[in-house]
Amino acid sequence: MIIEMLSLPFMQRALIVGLLIAVCAALVGVSLVLRHNSMIGDGLSHTAFSAFALATVFGFLPLAFALPVVIVSSFFVLRLSKNRKVHGDAAIGVLSASSLAIGTFAISVSKGVNIDLNSYLFGSILSVSWLDVLYSAILAVIVIGLYLFAYHRIFAITFDEDFAKSVGVKTEVYDAIFAIICSAVIVLGMRLLGSLLISSLIIFPTLTAMRMSRTFKGVVAMSAAVSVVAFLAGLFASYITAAPTGATVVLANLVIFIFATILGRITK
Questions:
Q1: Measured between alpha carbons, how far is residue 97 from residues 49, 148, 191 in Å?
Q2: Helix/strand/coil for 124
Q3: What is the DSSP letter of 8?
Q4: Percent of the chain beyond pLDDT 70?
Q5: Short-list 260, 236, 258, 257, CA closest to 248
Q6: Among 96, 97, 118, 122, which Cα is nearest to 107's?
Q7: Interior CA angle at 95 toward 30 and 183, to 5°?
Q8: Does residue 215 sit in helix, strand or coil?
Q9: b/e burial code for range 84-114 (CB count within 10 A of at least 16 → b)
Q10: What residues contact 156, with CB distance under 8 A and at least 6 apart?
Q11: What residues contact 41, with CB distance under 8 A and at least 6 apart?
Q12: Which of 2, 34, 36, 75 counts the most CB atoms within 10 A of its CB?
């Protein structure tokens, strides 16, 4: 069964992209979750849905159009989240609802354009190309390299941003880097998991890892491992049941999270 699955070209592309995006999302998610910014992924995923819909309607290249739009939106959310008059969750709520409305409206009024709404919302492994594989590989090298060469700075920013500033860490630069990386993860992963489910790759692995490890380094490593295992299980289940890949991957993450929670309570 596994050999038969891996013999299909579209499954090969989905496997490579999924594993790379799973690792990137897990690593970025550790910092976002611990800084209470995890829901930014949900807002950006809806923005990506709107950008992909507009690109399809107006004939733009979807990836080339969506990525800059999502990056700009991520900076907008980060800026609003630091504004005392607007809380971060409110800014994300405004962005999510507005983006989803714009995308849905663009699709509904478009004429002569064949758009599969389900592929945008829930993902489609058939839409993954070898170009997506290349982009995902580049993104994975950047994210892993960032953690290898700036681990202590990321650690300081994650737990005490004021302390990081006091010792000379340029927190604004790292905020911008994480915003760009998170945007790239959302845009590249949306083809596979869809706009409604891609943010789960950022949240679930970290929450699970926090129940299995008590150190930051352990959480980072465990989060990546959990994300990879959940994706492999979800992709295999998707092939067997013919269910959407995004749904099966999220369910696999949910099962692992519940198991880790129960195991943590027993061993505590």
A1: 11, 36, 20
A2: coil
A3: S
A4: 91
A5: 236
A6: 118
A7: 40
A8: coil
A9: eeeebeebbeebbeebbebbbebbeeeeeee
A10: 163, 164, 167, 169
A11: 29, 32, 182, 185, 186, 198, 199, 202, 203
A12: 34
Domains of the chain: which residue ranges? Answer: 2-267
Residues 191-248 have pLDDT tens digits of 788 777 788 888 999 999 998 888 899 999 999 999 999 999 999 988 888 888 888 9
Closest to 204 (Cα-Cα) out of 22, 43, 78, 17: 22
Cα(234)–Cα(241) distance, rounded to whole angstroms?
A: 10
Q: Which of 94, 76, 78 is nearest to 35 (CA)?
A: 78
CA 52 → CA 1, 46, 56, 202, distances in Å? Answer: 34, 10, 6, 20
The number of angstroms, rounded, from the C-alpha of 113 to the middle of its chain's C-alpha atoms is 28
Task: Output phi, psi for 98, to 5 deg.
Answer: -65, -45
Query: What is the CATH number assigned to the segment(s) 2-267?
Result: 1.10.3470.10
Output the CA–CA distances (angstroms, integers) from residue 208 to 5, 204, 212, 224, in the order listed.
28, 6, 7, 11
Rounded to 10°, the helix 9-34/245-267 angle is: 50
The token pair that represents 137 in the structure block:
């590989």
